[in-house]
Amino acid sequence: MIRLLDLISFLLLWGNALVIFRMLRTFLPMRKPFVLEIGAFLICPMLFNVVVYSNDLAGLLWPLVGFILYIALFYKGGWMEKLTAVMVFYPAVIAVNYLMEDTGSRLFFRLTDAPGYTYDGWTRETWLVSTFVHTCFLLLRMLFWLAASIVLRKYLLQIMKKLTPRMWMLVDILLLAPVVSIFTIIYFMPEEMAIVYPICGAAIFSSFGGIYLAAYISNSLKTEYGARELEMKLAYLHDKVSEEERVRSIYHDMKNHLLVLEAQEGHSKEVGAAIEKLREEIEDYEAYYHTGNDFLDIIIRDKMKKAREKQIDFQAVIRFEAGDFLEPLDISAIFGNALDNAIEASEKLSESMRLITAKASRIHDMLVVAVENNMMMELPRERKTSKEDAFLHGFGLSNIEKAVEKYDGQCTVKARDGKFVLKVMIPIPE
Fold it and tell me: N or C: where does the chain have the smaller number of CB atoms within 10 Å of the terminal CB?
C-alpha cells in the first residue's frame, strides 16, 4: 500500500509541475529549440515542488535564485517581463507548498502518536498514515493549481507582451508586497501561528492579482489604441466624403462639357478619341457601387480598389438605405474590418480562387450583412493574422462584434466547404 501511495505521490509531483509549467509558458514564450523545452520541464519538479520550513533562509533564497535562472535561461522576453513572472509565481509556489506541508504535518501528528524530529519508534501504520496524508495534500496542491490555471488562463492570454517597461514596473512594484510578506512571515516565524496562514493566503491572491492587473492594463491599452484607430478612420471618412462630393461635381460638369463637345462638328480624330476616353472614365466612375450611404460608398470603393490591385474578384450587392441609423464609425468597423480580413485571406489563395462577395439588405425588420470569401482550410481555433501589425489587426473581429452588440445585433462566423462567411444581423429601430 505504501509503495502504491509513493507511486501516486511521484505522479502528483510531476503533475503539479506540469500544470505550473503550462501556466508559465502561457505567460512567457519559451526559447527554441525543442530540446530546451524538454530540459525546462525536467527541471520543474525540483523548482516547483520545493518545500520551505520556518526560519529557513537558505530554503527561501535558493528557490528564488533558481526561479530567476530558470526563467532567464529557458524563456524569451524583456527582463521586466521575466521579473514579473518571477514575482508572480515564486511567492505563490512558496506559499502554497508551505501551507500544504505545514497543514499536512499538523494533521499527521494529530492522527498519530509519532514523536517529532525523529523516526524512531515509527510503526508500519505510522508510515502508512504519513504517506497517505502526504499523498492527499499533494493531490490538494495539484487541484489548487489546476483550478488556478483554469481561472487565470484567460487573463494570461489577454496580457499584451509589449507593455512598456514603465507599465511592467508598476506591476512589479505592486508584486513586491507578496514577495516581502512571504520572506518575512516564514523567516521571522511569529509565535502566533494563526497569522501565518492568512498572510500566505494573501500573498497567493496578491500574486495572482498581478496577472489580473497586467491583463487589465493590456486591455485598457487595446481599447485606447482601438479608439484612436476609429477616430482616425472617422476623420479619414469625413475627408473622403468631402472629396467624393467634389469629384461628383467635377464628373457632372465633365458630362455636360462632353455633350457640348460632341454636338460640335469638325473636331479631329484625336479630340474624338479624347472625348471617348473621358466618357469611359465617367462610366467607370458611375459603375462603382452606390449603396445608399455615402460613408459605405467610400469604404466599398476603397476595398474594391485594393482587391483589384491584388487580382481578387470582388462582388457586392448592397442596399443600405435601411442602415442609416448606424454611426459612421460602426459602419467602418463592420465593413472595413470584414473586407480587410477577407482580402488578407484571399491573398493566400491562387488567383482562380480569389473571390469576395459582400451582401447587405433589409430582410423584414433586420439589417443583414454577409461577407464571404474562399479559404484553404477550416477556421483555426485561435484567431491569428500574418500581418506585421498583428496587435492592431487583432481588433478586427472583436471590433465588429463590439459594433454589432452596440445595436443589440448578432455576429456569427462560419468556415465550411472551403468558404469563410461572416454574417451580421442588426434589428432596425422603428
Answer: C
Tens of pLDDT, residues 295-342? 788 888 888 888 988 999 998 888 888 888 998 888 888 998 899 989
Q: Do the Cβ atoms of 114 and 96 come closer than 8 Å?
A: no
Structural domains of the chain ordered from first start: 2-225 (no CATH), 291-430 (3.30.565.10)
- The alpha-helical segments, DSSP class H, found in 49-164 are 57-74, 79-111, 124-158
396: CB partners within 8 A, 6+ apart: 337, 338, 340, 341, 385
- Contact at 8 Å (CB) between 90 and 172? no
Query: Are 156 and 162 a contacting pair, CB within 8 Å?
Result: no
Cα 420 to Cα 345: distance, rounded to the nearest angstrom: 9
CA distance 246 to 250: 6
Per-residue pLDDT averaged across 10-23, rounded?
Answer: 89
How large is the average pLDDT for residues 206-216? 83
Q: For residues 322 and 388, is the Cβ–Cβ distance under 8 A?
A: no
Q: Given a cut of 60, is residue 373 above it in pLDDT?
A: yes
Percent composition of the chain: helix, strand, coil (DSSP 3-state, to 5): 70, 10, 20
Residue 72 has pLDDT above 60, yes or no: yes
What stretch of H or E contains 299?
helix 294-309
pLDDT at 370: 94
Q: Grid coordinates 477550416 are at which residue?
A: 378
CA 121, CA 252: separation in Å to the nearest integer? 106
Say which residues have a Cβ less than 8 Å from residue 359's Cβ, sequence separation at least 6. 316, 317, 318, 368, 369, 370, 371, 372
| Residue found under cell 466624403 | 241
Cβ contacts of 269 within 8 Å, gap of 6 or more: none
